[in-house]
Write a structure and sequence with these properties.
Elements: H1 13-19, H2 25-29, E1 39-41, E2 47-49, H3 51-60, E3 66-72, H4 82-95, E4 100-104, H5 109-113, E5 121-122, E6 125-128, H6 130-134, H7 140-160, E7 167-172, E8 176-178, E9 188-190, E10 200-202, E11 204-206, H8 211-217, H9 222-231, E12 233-237, E13 242-244, H10 251-256, E14 265-269, E15 274-277, H11 292-301, E16 304-308, H12 316-328, E17 334-339, H13 341-348, H14 364-382, E18 388-393, H15 400-413, E19 417-421, H16 423-426, H17 432-442, H18 458-470, E20 474-477, H19 479-490, E21 498-501, E22 521-524, E23 526-530, E24 535-539, E25 559-560, E26 566-567
Parallel strand pairs: 3-16, 3-17, 4-15, 4-16, 8-11, 17-18, 18-19, 20-22, 21-24
Antiparallel strand pairs: 1-2, 2-14, 5-6, 6-14, 7-12, 9-10, 12-13, 14-15, 23-24, 25-26
Helix pairs in contact: 4-17, 13-14, 14-15
């Protein structure tokens, strides 16, 4: 699709999506060696790959494509355009004649109706059909919600029937799930009334925060998914021993509810580049990327696969390197660090809390100061041994002076390949320079170098990430954290990687500290073992696993007319 001229009225992302020409999904996948029989259509424009196609692809081809990981500097509350950049880069590579595909997380209804609105890219770099992707899509979220809550009800029935192993109802760690922001359900009491079952404290979390989501996204096959589900720790018995999904007989029924959800979804970008949109784990208490099965299939069908990690590189990219790559042997050939002038202004302001309206105004001095944040992210990424490319996601109010200063600093002071990206406004054409830089970077020899050894202790892993990535001077452990570490290390298991959860607003654990904080100590409050996902979650602050609605929810601006046309989704 041709981008609008500068003289045309400014179209919204939704209007651009509505006006785009979209092809039947089997025509999008056919050039990649997939016949119409290989896709199970959900209408004309979205589909799942069939199990037979997945088996054939995995048995007949090698994952020879190059994976490009898109991450970002420490963002502003508005986000800096990682998804837009990922989609636009995929389109640019397609325009350059490469067989490229995109792999992204699928949105959760909670954030869609809460504060974010749609989450499928934007402008001329978005994935379609936008309404379907942001709403019910192919039903994966609903299947995960049902499977999670089936485990919950079997768990409570196990307690009511007083079955072995006898569960300590005060040591149940499996909440219920809902795919909607609803703060009143965070903490509940269940079992009230004569026939209400065992009374105990409970609560809900967002479906995307369920360990089932992380498990689904780390499984390459249905059998691996079943095995991972069986290992999930849902409670502890009266002897303080872990109780798993397998212990209450919930493995089979939970897995069968996910038999379709594990199949990758395939849609298309606005320019017809295939996009596998599958899974959506949290990027703080989980690894924050789309499914490994989608990446695996895409790498076997494509020359380049563009994927995205949640939050800034200190969270998303670090987890990809230490968790996803560790468990799947999938290593990025290059990393794209997305930066924006407004984020640089944000991290260069002298007064806090920041004035978000001021970010719209040029501020060369603030941009210059804010570059320290980019420097730190580049330094961190280089430690992993993967080539880095910086993408400056240009917004309309960015000045040439600001752009040129950032380009000069990144290219000459940091010696990092850097390109300005205008993919929101111009689609793939606005990412051609970035694509050329990425192809060059991905052709360089590289080898992923983890920052800690797999057999290192939990404390060593935490302290390595805290000091090497976040820039902390030290780590402080609460008494609860020390007890948790002892309990986890007493379990009969391989030494797992850690999944550090902290604020994404700062490199530190204090969201008010911008730029590159110095002279601080990371505080660890609690740990728990996600045995199915295969990592230890380390909490460094309050984790909101069920967000509430803001004062002005995005949902109140959405509507549908009598013709079925939706408005306000972006």
């Amino acid at each position: 699709m041709t981008p609008q001229s500068t003289d045309s009225p400014v179209e919204t992302d939704y209007e651009i999506a509505q006006n785009a020409a979209i092809d039947p999904i089997w025509e999008i996948t056919e050039p990649f060696g997939l016949s119409q029989a290989d896709v199970d259509p959900y209408g004309r424009y979205k589909a799942k790959l069939t199990p037979e196609a997945i088996d054939r692809i995995q048995s007949e081809t090698e994952p020879d494509g190059k994976l490009v990981l898109v991450t970002g500097m420490t963002p502003t509350p508005m986000g800096e355009g990682k998804t837009v950049t990922a989609v636009g880069l995929g389109q640019a590579l397609t325009q350059r004649g490469y067989k490229a595909s995109i792999t992204l997380r699928e949105p959760s209804l909670g954030p869609v109706f809460g504060i974010k609105g749609g989450a499928a890219g934007g402008g001329y770099s978005q994935v379609l059909p936008m309404e379907d992707i942001n709403l019910h899509f192919t039903g994966d979220m609903h299947a995960l919600t049902a499977a999670h809550n089936l485990i919950s009800t079997l768990l409570d029935n196990h307690i009511r029937q007083d079955t072995e192993p006898r569960i300590d109802r005060k040591a149940v760690r499996w909440k219920r799930a809902i795919d909607m922001n609803d703060r009143v359900l965070r903490n509940t009491v269940i079992g009230l009334g004569e026939t209400g079952g065992a009374v105990r404290e409970d609560g809900f979390l967002l479906t995307a925060a369920s360990e089932l989501m992380a498990v689904l996204c780390l499984s390459k096959t249905l059998s691996e998914l079943k095995d991972r589900i069986s290992r999930i720790i849902i409670a502890y018995d009266e002897g303080k021993n872990p109780v798993t999904v397998a212990d209450i007989g919930a493995t089979g029924p939970a897995t069968l509810l996910l038999r379709d959800a594990i199949k990758p979804n395939v849609v298309q970008s606005i320019e017809g580049t295939p996009a596998f949109v599958h899974g959506g784990p949290f990027a703080n208490i989980a690894h924050g990327t789309n499914s490994v099965i989608a990446n695996d299939v895409a790498l076997r069908l494509s020359e380049y696969v563009i994927t995205e990690a949640g939050f800034g590189s200190d969270l998303g990219a670090e987890k990809f390197m230490h968790i996803v790559s560790h468990q799947t042997d999938v290593t990025p050939a290059a990393v794209v660090l997305v930066a924006s002038i407004r984020a640089l202004r944000y991290h260069g302001q002298e007064m806090w809390p920041a004035d978000l309206d001021a970010l719209k105004e040029p501020d060369v001095a603030a941009v210059r100061t804010g570059l320290r944040n980019v420097d730190k992210h580049v330094e961190n990424l280089r430690k992993f041994g993967i080539p880095v490319v910086i993408a400056i996601n240009r917004f309309p109010n960015d000045t040439d002076e600001e752009i040129e200063m950032v380009l000069d600093h990144c290219r000459n002071d940091l010696n990092v390949s850097t390109a300005v990206s205008t993919v929101h406004e111009d689609g793939g054409a606005g990412g051609i320079s970035l694509a050329e830089h990425v192809v060059s970077a991905a052709s360089q020899p590289s080898e992923l170098t983890p920052l800690y050894e797999p057999e290192a202790s939990i404390e060593t892993k935490i302290e390595t990430i805290a000091t090497e990535i976040y820039g902390a001077d030290s780590v402080t452990y609460s008494s609860q954290a020390k007890t948790d570490i002892e309990r986890i290390e007493s379990l009969d298991m391989d030494t797992p990687p850690i999944c550090l959860s902290k604020t994404f607003h700062s490199l530190s654990d204090d969201p008010s500290l911008k730029g590159v904080p110095e002279g601080w100590s990371l505080t660890v409050w609690e740990l728990y073992y996600s045995a199915g996902a295969g990592f230890v979650v380390v909490l460094t602050g309050d984790v909101m696993t069920l967000p509430g609605l803001p004062a002005d929810p995005a949902a109140t601006s959405m509507d549908i007319d009598t013709d079925g046309d939706i408005s306000g989704l972006f």
